[in-house]
Each structure stands twice: as structure tokens, then as C-alpha cells.
Amino acid sequence: MKRPLAVIGITYLITAAAAACFSAPVLFGAGAVLLLAGLLSLAARHPQRRAAFAVLVTAALALLATGAELRFRVQPLRDLAGQTARIEGRVCAISGGRSIEIELEGGLTIAVSSRETLDVELGDRFSAVASLSRYDEGASTGYARSKAVLTPLRAFVAGDYTAVPCEPGSLRGMMGDLNRRMDATLHRLLPNESGDLLSAMLLGRKQLVPQESRDDFSAAGISHLLAISGLHLAVLAAFFGRACHALRIPTRLSALLTAVAVFGYMGLVGFPVSVCRAGGMVLLALLAQSLSRRADPITSLAAAGLILCAGSPLVASDVSFQLSFLATLGILLGANRLAGLAAGWVRQRRFPRLWGAAANALAVTVSATLFTLPVVVARFGRAALYAPLTNLMVSPLVPLALVCGLVAILLGMLPAVGVIASPFALAAGLSVGLIDSVAAAVASLPFAELPAGAGFVSLWMAGAALMVAMACVRPSRKKSAACAALCAITLMTGILSYQLAMRGATSLTVIATGRSTAAVVAVKDGHAAVLGAINSKSDVYEVEQALSRRMVDQIDLFALSPASGNRNGAVSDLLSLYPVDLAVVSAEDAEDERMLAALDRAGAAVLWADLDAQLWGGDRVSIDGNTICSDFSGIKSFILDGDCDILKVNKRMGGCAVAVAASGAELSGLQCDLLVTRGDPLGGMPAGAVIRLDDARPRVELLCRAGRMAVREEGGGLW
After folding, report:
1. Which residue from 62, 118, 264, 271 has the highest number of Cβ atoms inside 10 Å of its Cβ?
2. Rounded distance, CA 583 to CA 576, Å?
3. What positions does the domain ComEC/Rec2-related protein occupy (predicted)?
4. Which residues does 327 contact at the CB level (< 8 Å), separation at least 6?
5. What's the rounded mean pLDDT across residues 134-160?
6. What is the CATH number of domain 84-165?
7. What would the pLDDT profile of 620-643 be if each residue is shown by its tens digit?
8. Torsional sign, CA 69, 75, 76, 82
9. Would you kindly state where each structural domain of the chain is located, as residue ranges?
10. If you average pLDDT over residues 295-321, what whole number do you get?
């Protein structure tokens, strides 16, 4: 068997990543079956029996190890959901001013949020009494479900907390202090948004990047630049290696110094999983160089993955690990082959070196994109259409920004030569500014970000995979060009047919929010109305997913039902993502500072009261007491809470086609064709069909056109 370590390592990683989606009993049973099959394979007379034995036993061990981790480490934490307890751990990630992650003993983490700003730094020892809930409660996306493996719990801190910095003499403390000093030096040299972006790219401080820039980077397909990974380490390792070569340092000593620099940089950014994966591979390559041996990159990649998963196989389920691993694997397997297809054409151009560099860069980008696309679509529910083009455009700018930024910081920290840092800071700032401008320009293009829920994306991916497989069989330039053209035609046909099918139709997505309430997202031709109760960050995320799946440009009406408790400013994040023409909020919401700041950007904002608003194409929305009445494409719908007056509603609007009722709502006398509810309303169920929403089915979609309605279940068709 060629490359036995690579085969065993990749088998283990893929199996462990897939195993995290199943329960422990299923994994124990499947692991036992594969282990038995592996033992039986030794009795076969096939020449590849040893390879089959190694693969089967490796997969069995991955299943059994993952099952044990889920049963004995993850499940006990999930059992704490619904309780109030003291949490304690190291701060390992800072998502924002009010959101962090703390690492527990053994590598598992807890997502912590608070009503107030959390004054913490990476590496601090955090302790607080918090209310706990499962991270995957109500989760409907692959990202949330996969993250819930390593982050089983959410914790909300309502009171005081303590954050103790690392000991000054410890390695973690010194690295954290150095990270803060470098960030302060960088912002002294670049006191603007470019400094925030460069700090995220170089020092891992993503919390400083504005949400608008994050969205642009994501839509353009270059969000990986904001998460330190293999690209950053490869650039910095190459920089240190060339610097040692310029100083005429011997090869072995150069490899040793570069390894020390790479390990120090890994500690500087806090040893995140993706950095450890990339760093492990770089360190193995440097070790081979110091021993005057040629390293096999695929074997080094597999070995680095196995080393990372040695402590816990659950690391393989981490999204950043998967993206980093697959991107590197794609570059190793496909970049040279794709570049080779264009070699003949490049030699016939006037500037072969320039065209060759462009072809190599494009081959690397396309290879990484193709290998990571399935994970991106499955985990994030979207695909960046122009990602290869964007990566090609910014590829020369990224090394310039990283190297010049690092040199500027190091020189700026030295008092004697600090003035020399300004030119390097200027070059880094210009590079980052250009990257940001390219991301914003690409994100504004039509169909920059395709929602996977649109249906045609999955079909296009399947067709593209088939055509790529066909092109790999006896590859030729003509066959590759034909397959690429067919793939592009399939994609454009899907986009156009989707647009034609949805033109003029209204999509009503009913979302179960909280434990007893519901919200409705109505979308028609890029315009949206968000109606009902939105009480938490998970609710906001569900609404964002509904809007992104329908490629919404703006929100015409945002009517937020009065809440029984504090929303903790969660809705303000949603208002900052889309332009809002009219916002209707309660007096309690209007007193929240973050909500007020978000409402300032709306076209108009009014307090909750009786209201009659006309939307696109003559559709109407009325607010009557605590009830929202709407008419979309000839389909009447009511959103009813627990204090609704059915007699008053029936007298004013009569019956309806769809009623969305909160748990505990009084429905005596209600006339409707379809009831969507979470829980049991009072007064009995009305005549007609009933759809119950719960954690397993948190939403349902209704398609309305010209007075006709169809219901589409999650993952199913129409009925």
C-alpha cells in the first residue's frame, strides 16, 4: 500500500468527522461491525487484504473513539441544560463584545453571552454563574449542529463575572501580553478600519472587524482571510525562510529558526485548531528539511491531522479544521493537474511567465474551492459564486499585507527604529484597503452568494461533481473545457429558472421562536416583511437564514411584537444587516440603547399601535391590538399571541387561510384553513389542517401566488 500513513490518517479523519453526526449507540454498533469486517478481511486471499484491514480497522477505531467521547464527555455536559450553574474555563475565542467562548478541561468549549460587554482577553480565566442551554436547541443549520459537538452548551451570564489574566511568567500569559502590545502598536500605526482588518488577519482579533466587512468577505468567498489558518502560516514561514536564506544562514539552522518562529506565532494567536493543523504540517516539513529528507506533503497533512485528533477525535468535526484540511488536500491533489492543463496554452502567449503565474494562482484557488465547497454548502447553507475570481484578484495582496504588517509591528515596537515602520504600515494598509474594496465590489454583484436552500445549488453541485469525474477519466484540454462550459450553463440555467419560478410569488416562512411564540418572514421579489416575536440570537439567526435563502435586498416592514422579557438587544443585529423602510417596535424595545441605534438607520420607526400598511403589489399588513393581520398574494394570515381577541379579529377581517398561533392563545371561534402553532392553543383546534412546530421542525414554508397556497416541509416537496 502506497503512503500507508496518509491512507490511515485520511480514513480516520473522514470517519471521525462523519461519526460526529450520529449518536453514541449507533457508533458503537457500526464500529463493532467494521472491526469484525476488518478481522475477517485478513482471511481473504485478495492481494489488497492488508490495505482493506488497515482501512476497516482505522474506521472502526474512529467510530468507537468518537462514540466514547460523545457518551462520556459531551452527553454529561448536555445533561446540564436548563440548569443554573457556575462555569469556569479559559477564554479561547472572542466573537464580539458580549460573546465569547471558554475552553473547559479536555478541549470542549462553552459559548458565553451576556447583556453587558465582557471585558476579557484571550487566555483569561473566566468564571461566572450562568443559565445553561443546549447549543443545538432549535438549530436548523449544519454549522450549528456541527459546532454543538465541541460546544455542547450555551451560557447566559446575567450577573457579575470574574476574568483573571494569565500568570505574568507563564507562556500563555507572555504570549497574550505580546498579542495585546502588537495590536496596540498596529492601531497606533493604522488607526482606522484597515488596522482592524489587519489585526484580524495577523493577530486573530476578529471581534474588531465590522459586521458589514464580515458579510462582504463571506459573500465574496474570502472570509478565510479573517480566520488565521494555513495560508497565513505558509506566507509567514516562507518569509522567515527567505530572510534566513538572505542572511546566509545554513539550511538546517534556517529550518530550526523558522520552526521556532512558526510555533511562536501559533502561540501568539492562541493555538486555534486550524492554526495547529497548518502549523503541524509546516513543522513536519521543516523537520524533514532539517534532516535533509524530502517530505511527502500528503503524508505530512495526514500526520498533522492525526496528531491533532490524538487528544479527541471530535476535533475532526470542527468546521475550521475541515475547511483548512480540505483546502490543503485540494491544492496538493488538484493544483498541479489543473495548471498542467493550461501549460500548452500558456507557452503560446506573449508573456508566458505572467500568464503561468496567473494560471497557477487560479489552479490553486479553484482546487481549494472545489474541495471545500461541499462543506461550505452543508455547514453554512450558501455558496460564493465568484470565490475563485475574488481569490485570484486578492492573492498578490495577501502576502504583501501580512509581511508588511508584521514588519511594521516589529519595527514599531522598537523605540530606536520606530519611524521606519511607517512605510511598511502604509503598504500594509493600502493592501488591506484594496482587499476590502474588492470584497465589497464582488459582494454587490448579482448572485454573489447563492443560498443552498434554493434547491438548484445542490443539483448544480451534483452535476459539477459528475462532470469533474468525467474530465478526470483520460483528461484532455477539450474535455475539460467542455465540462467547465456545461457546468457553467447548468448553474446559469438553474439561477434563471429559480428566478422565473419565484417571480411574483410570496414565500411565507413561519419560524418557531422561543418556547411559545412565532414569527413570519414574508418575501416577494427581493422585498421582505418580518412580523411577530423575535426574542433571542437564535431567533435572529433563523430569520437571517430565511432572508438569505430568498436573496432579500431590503426589509419593507419590520413589526416586532411586544415581548414579555428583555430581548437583550438581539434584534438590533438584524436591523443593521438590511435597510428597513418602516420599523414598528414596543415602548420597551425603544428604550434599549442598541435598538435605538439600529432604528436610527431605518427609514421610519413608530411605536406599536393599530396600523395599516401597504406593501409591494397591493399586499397589506394591519396591526390590531396584539394581533398582526396580513394579506399576501390573496392569502390572508393572522399572527396571534396569548392575549388575542378572536371575536374582534373575526369581526374585522373574517376568516383566514393561515393562522400562526402562540402556545396558550385562545382560538375559540377562529375560522382558518391551516393552523401553524407551537404548543397547544386554548379553546380547541379550529377546523382545517394543523402543523405543529417543535425543536425538530422549527419552521415551515408556505408559497403563495394568486390566492393559492402550497406548503413545503423542511427537506421535502409541496403538498
Report:
1. 62
2. 12
3. 201-471
4. 224, 229, 230, 368, 371, 372
5. 78
6. 2.40.50.500
7. 888 877 788 888 888 888 887 766
8. positive
9. 4-78, 84-165, 173-331+372-449, 457-500, 506-712
10. 81
pLDDT class of 715 with cuts at 50, 70, 90: very low
Pair 27, 323: CB distance under 8 Å: no
How many other CB atoms sit within 10 Å of the CB of residue 461? Answer: 20
Has residue 648 got a pLDDT over 50? yes
- Give dist(CA 3, CA 159) in Å, integer: 55
Q: Is the confidence at residue 527, as pLDDT, over 80?
A: yes
CB 258 within 8 A of CB 237: yes
Closest to 198 (Cα-Cα) out of 177, 218, 213: 213
Size of the chain, expressed as the number of residues it contains: 719
pLDDT category at 665 given cuts 50, 70, 90 is: low
Amino acid identity of residue 421, one-letter, is A
Instruction: Please tell me which residue, 677 or 517, carries the higher pLDDT value.
Output: 677
Q: Which residue has the cell 497565513?
A: 232
* Cell matching residue 42: 485478513
pLDDT for 448: 79
Give 49-93 as a DSSP string.
HHHHHHHHHHHHHHHHHHHHHIIIIIHHHHTTTT-EEEEEEEEEE
d(CA 336, CA 301): 17
The topology under which CATH files domain 506-712 is Metallo-beta-lactamase; Chain A (3.60.15)
Q: Which residue, among 261, 244, 267, has the nearest Cα to 178 in the 3D structure?
A: 267
Strand-pair category, 689-692 with 699-705 = unpaired
Q: Is the pLDDT of residue 65 over 90?
A: yes
pLDDT value, residue 262: 87
Contact 241, 286 (CB under 8 A): no
DSSP E strand stretches across 306-443: 382-384
Which of 136-150, 250-264, 549-563, 688-702 has the highest mean predicted lDDT (pLDDT)? 250-264
Q: Starting at the edge strand that comes first in sequence, how are the strands of the sheet with 620-624 ordered? A: 611-614, 620-624, 627-632, 635-640, 656-661, 672-677, 689-692
Bridge-based pairing state of the strands 580-585 and 604-607: parallel
**Cβ 331 vs Cβ 368: under 8 Å:** yes
> Half-sphere exposure (CA, 13 Å, Cβ side) for 212?
10
For β-strands 580-585 and 554-560, DSSP reports them as parallel
Q: What is the pTM of this model?
A: 0.73
